[in-house]
User: Which sequence fits this backbone?
């Protein structure tokens, strides 16, 4: 876990993703070193899976993020003690984030954040997952495949032959001719 002067950057693991009480909303639960985090996410934009490693960022400054990450901005609404521990609630314009501190940890004190601070909450894919997502490309394969095809007539005949042979080959065949 890396604390910043005005925020938090902590590695977590997604432990569950369940349907919420509202239509189209999922509850994502994460286990982190010093806290548990539960947040709402709209089903249509959820890119996360159970047991996935992610980085959670809370910051007063807008962090960098990619298309596979979830980021929103809102306000730290309240912090209260209950039987689970010290609970901090963040509202991202309707979506809620619930952070439950373990032991004697205190998110607000540890991160120099305050109730009613405007903050950014991001769940970012781990660097390994992001590296693969950003750097994996079929382009080298596409170039090799397109060089070996002599003419459009042969392409057409090849597609017809593959359709007759196996319907499962069609998506890969289409990828080979995209370049």
Assistant:
């Amino acid at each position: 876990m890396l604390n910043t002067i005005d925020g938090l950057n902590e590695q977590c693991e997604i432990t569950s993703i369940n349907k919420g009480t509202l239509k189209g909303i999922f509850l994502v639960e994460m286990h982190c070193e010093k806290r548990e985090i539960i947040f709402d996410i709209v089903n249509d934009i959820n890119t996360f899976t159970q047991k996935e490693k992610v980085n959670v960022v809370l910051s007063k400054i807008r962090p960098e993020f990619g298309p596979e990450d979830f980021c929103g901005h809102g306000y730290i609404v309240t912090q209260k003690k209950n039987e689970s521990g010290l609970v901090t609630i963040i509202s991202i314009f309707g979506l809620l984030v619930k952070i439950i501190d373990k032991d004697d940890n205190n998110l607000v004190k540890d991160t120099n954040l305050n109730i009613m601070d405007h903050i950014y909450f991001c769940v970012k894919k781990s660097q390994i997952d992001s590296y693969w997502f950003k750097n994996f490309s079929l382009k080298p394969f596409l170039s090799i495949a397109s060089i070996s095809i002599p003419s459009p007539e042969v392409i057409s005949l090849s597609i017809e032959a593959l359709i007759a042979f196996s319907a499962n080959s069609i998506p890969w065949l289409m990828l080979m001719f995209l370049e």
In short: The chain has two domains: 2-135, 139-176. Residues 152-165 form the longest helix (14 residues).
